[in-house]
Amino acid sequence: MLIPEHFDHLVIAVPDLAASVEQFAEILGVHPVPGGSHPGLGTANALLGLDLGLDPGLGDGADLGSRRIYLEIIGPDPAQDPRLAAGRLAGISAPTVQRWAIRPPDFDSVVAAALRSDEPHVDLGEVHDMTRRTPAGEVLEWRLTRRSPLALGGIQPFLIDWRDSPHPTDRALPRVELQAFWATTPRVAETRSVLGFLDATIDVEAGDAESLHAALKGPGGSWTI
Known about the structure:
Blueprint: E1 7-13, H1 17-28, E2 33-38, E3 43-51, E4 70-76, H2 82-85, E5 96-102, H3 107-116, E6 126-133, E7 139-146, E8 158-161, E9 175-185, H4 188-197, E10 203-206, E11 211-218, E12 221-224
Parallel strand pairs: 1-4, 3-9, 5-8, 9-10
Antiparallel strand pairs: 1-5, 2-3, 3-4, 6-7, 7-8, 9-11, 11-12
């Protein structure tokens, strides 16, 4: 499994957050914890930590289990106007690996390089300031790149900069193992080129449609989404 050094988190979009949290708990044997609400966007999330185990492809088999990587389960927030989330969750009728994020050491440099990129052309969209209120009432602030529609069907990662906010993995999260993470696309060469430009190489296979896939394993079982 190819995992970029600066992989930050994986986003699984769901049609009903509460029902999907119970589905994750039933299948994987681990209960996702509430992450908080995204004010004005109509969504809320639940979180799990992600372990990667030992990666024999990294020379000495470096232990990646302690890396700061997590899974975000995102769905409509029942406390907000459902129309706010309609665009971000369009077409989501079952848990779907929708997109993923990298956390580059120099966010601004990567954004600037993408603006200058020609071959490959990399469109990160715009930089947005974001907030989330945790269940404890703490307001987290960060920034990320966002474009619509998702670039390469979500296979191109978005960039995130947590600024001075604590990283979600700084809290104790229940954890599952990410056993596999890959993309399928009819544009394999172009996709690999864009991912290489962003230093975000993952496994890419030929397929009829652009999509992301993840295989998860918990103490209660395994689930490929």
